[in-house]
Amino acid sequence: MIGASQGNSKRAAGWDILLFLLILSLATFHGGCAGLTKASGSSAPPSAPTVSITSPTSSATVSVSTTVSANASANTVGVQFKLDGANLGSEKTSAPFSTSWDTTTTANGQHALAAVARNAAGQTGNSAPVSVTVQNSSGGPTVSITSPTSGATVSASATVSVNVSANTVGVQFKLDGSNLGSEVTAAPFSVSWDTTTTANGQHTLTAVARNAGGQTAPSTAVTVTVQNSSVGPPVISGVGAGPGSTTATIFWATDVPSDGQVDYGTTVTYGQSSTLDSTPVTGHFVGLSALTASTTYHFRVKSKSASGMATSSDSTFTTLAAGADGSLGSLAASMSPGTWAVLNTNGFNNGAYLADPISSGDYITQYADKAVWDAGSRTFFFMGSAHGTVCYAKFATYLDATSTWTDGSWAGLPDLPGEQPCFTEFHGHAYEHNAVSPGFVYHRGYNSVHVYRYPIASGGPWVKLPDISMANFQCCGALEWFPDRNELVFFDGDWGLWKFFNNAWTQIAAGNGGGFAPQFLMGGFQNFAQYSPSAHAIWFGGGNGSNKIYRYNSDGTFTTLNLAPFGLGVAQSVISVDPVSGNFLILRDMGAGNGQFWQYNVVTDVWTQLPPPPISVLSVLASGAIGDGLIATPISTYGVVMYLKFVFSSSRVYLYKHSGG
Asked: What is the maximum span of the chain, computed from C-alpha positions, in angstroms?
């Protein structure tokens, strides 16, 4: 038993040694691991980035475009802004950390802004949310001038007042495009205008409204005349002459009502004077008679008001050759570029030819602005109708060879000439419904799909073309001949553009009604369309005050042009074309007998205001519109534009020469 005990003791001692060695190995292993861990990680873990929104501040109200900014810790390499939990733009990866927020794309009300910063290790940190209120106006402001009214005459101190929409917080008044005082920021929105600091004459007032969101909107322009007591004699302008062979009409304008008289003779000493016209007016016409044919005369005009006498500088005119009275070509040849002249014609009878002989006050040039000229026959044509209880209509022609007005044939037309019920095809005004091609005159019936063609050589009869295949149509569009494409084209602002080719009408573009490509937006009716010979294209658009214009090119394509600086169309303007340069000439109707004269350059697409025509061209009719009663057509044969202006017994035929050549 002793031997067995000793053996057991030895085995126990051996197990103890093995256990000791095992514990020692484990201790050594853990120490090595600790050492390894310590050696491989000598610094603390990186810190997460921090970020806070600095703008806008909590509870702020924002509108339009707002900048959202944040402060971030130095270890930040990117900031993602968030709006209501969704990304607001892309992550910003460089300081300063900010983004632009177009709040107009967000619903009005309360919204939460936040920012998430990111460091190089990919750790992120969130800002505290910032609550803001979006408050954009539901619509832009509106403004209209209520005083003075368009056409008013003002003097001394005048108050300019407006009506504005409820969301308006400021109104800037303007005089001739320049600020009139500082912005008015409280109701009632008005400004005092010392008109004595403004030159006598015609001026334009406008107002620009602003809402809290920064949106602005202009008013419609109001044209007024400043007339303060003159401190000197009248100012004379627009002096001109319309000679015949033994007669001449002298015309001019004054800035204030004045009398009028003409000194004239074959030398600068004059020697003769017209009878004094003692009626105070601003538009003056004086007739001279018993002159010698083919003779140059000197003349000057004189006008006197309560403030004194004014005398013009010397001017000249040359009477026409015997038997050439009223010759359009002779008068045109005697004119210089930029001048106006009165054309004496046979049968015009101071406008009685255009008037309804039965119903006083009606005349065929109402609601129209365009006549046509046939170079082959040297004849002016105009199919027009009055506007009244009944509508007086006439096919008016002027033959250059005899300088005489006569009625053209009515054969083949569905209506009768003279007085007839209104708003039938040929008793519903002319608008821009007359066109001419070599050998033919065209007329589109009022509110109709019918276009009629008149053969010039035979003097009729009229023939109806195939109907324009329009399901819908407006009363009054524009008809024009396109010689480069051998097409007759009709333009309807609402229902599209149509061409007549190979004896059929085909749609080539859409108007406001759509349904066809391309589409061109413009006024719904009373549009214009006129051909420029130098550009070989038709310009069209306008209507109802629209300033949108387009070009129909000779290759059949279309071009959108810059907006006109004012509204165009039969009720707003009289448009014609200079036959020499091909540029457009526009008399802008500003109401109450006031207007401006503009040129549109067909090459540069630029508008330029020209010196005004004689005041008699702008004379006001009962409707108060200069365009009412005024029509025009380029006379390609002689390089001038002919204007017919109906003002009852003061009606005249004018020529304007824009360019030399």
From this structure: 178
Cβ partners under 8 Å of residue 218, min gap 6: 143, 206, 207, 208, 209
Q: What is the pLDDT of residues 202-248, one digit of tens each?
A: 788 999 999 888 888 899 888 888 877 656 788 887 787 777 778 78
**Residue 25 DSSP SS3:** helix
Beta strands in 196-276 (DSSP E): 201-211, 216-218, 222-226, 236-243, 248-265, 272-273
Query: Is residue 353 left, alpha or beta, with left meaning phi > 0 and alpha meaning psi from -120 to 50?
Result: alpha
> Of 537, 573, 529, 530, nearest to 555 (Cα)?
537
DSSP string covering 304-332 = EETTEEEEPPPEEEEPPPTT-TT-HHHHH
236-318 has CATH 2.60.40.10 classification: yes
Domain covering 328-477+538-657, topology: Neuraminidase (2.120.10)
Residues 6+ apart with CB under 8 A from 497: 489, 490, 491, 507, 508, 509, 510, 511, 520, 540, 552
How many helices (DSSP H) and strands (DSSP E) are in the chain? 2, 50
Per-residue pLDDT of 366-389, as tens digits, reads: 899 999 999 878 899 999 998 777
Count of C-beta atoms within a 10 Å radius of residue 303: 28
- Cβ proximity of 71 and 49 under 8 Å: no
Helix (H, G, I), strand (E, B) or coil at 360: coil
The yes-or-no verdict on residue 111 having pLDDT over 80 is yes
Per residue in 534-564, pLDDT tens?
Answer: 898 999 999 988 999 999 998 899 999 999 9
Query: Domain 51-134's class?
Result: mainly beta
Q: How confident is the prediction for the chain on average, in pLDDT?
A: 86
194's enclosing H/E stretch is strand 190-194
3-class SS at 616?
helix
Nearest Cα to Cα of residue 339 among 32, 614, 54, 31:
614
Q: Which CATH number fits domain 143-226: 3.40.50.150, 3.10.150.10, 3.40.50.720, 2.60.40.10?
A: 2.60.40.10
pLDDT value of residue 1 = 41
Segment (H or E) for 36 = helix 2-40
Helix (H, G, I), strand (E, B) or coil at 195: helix
* Secondary structure element (H or E) that encloses residue 339, with its range: strand 339-342
Q: What would the pLDDT profile of 117-156 be if each residue is shown by its tens digit?
A: 999 989 999 999 999 998 876 677 899 999 998 878 888 8
Of 617, 643, 645, give the one whose Cα is nearest residue 371. 643
- Provide the pLDDT confidence category of residue 323 given band limits of 50, 70 and 90: low
Is residue 341 a contact partner of residue 655, using CB atoms and an 8 Å limit? yes
In whole angstroms, how far apart are CA 465 and each of 412, 425, 449, 453, 505? Answer: 12, 14, 10, 7, 9
Query: Span 421-447, mean pLDDT?
Result: 90
Name the amino acid, one letter, at 385: S
Q: Residue 596 in contact with residue 612, Cβ under 8 Å?
A: yes
Residue 102 backbone phi and psi in degrees, to 5: -80, 95
Sign of the dihedral defined by the CA atoms of residues 75, 81, 84, 86, in that order: negative
Exposure of 657 in the CB half-sphere (CA atoms within 13 A): 21
% of residues, the chain, pLDDT over 90: 52
Q: Where in the chain is the domain with CATH 2.120.10?
A: 328-477+538-657
Q: What is the CA radius of gyration of the chain?
A: 41
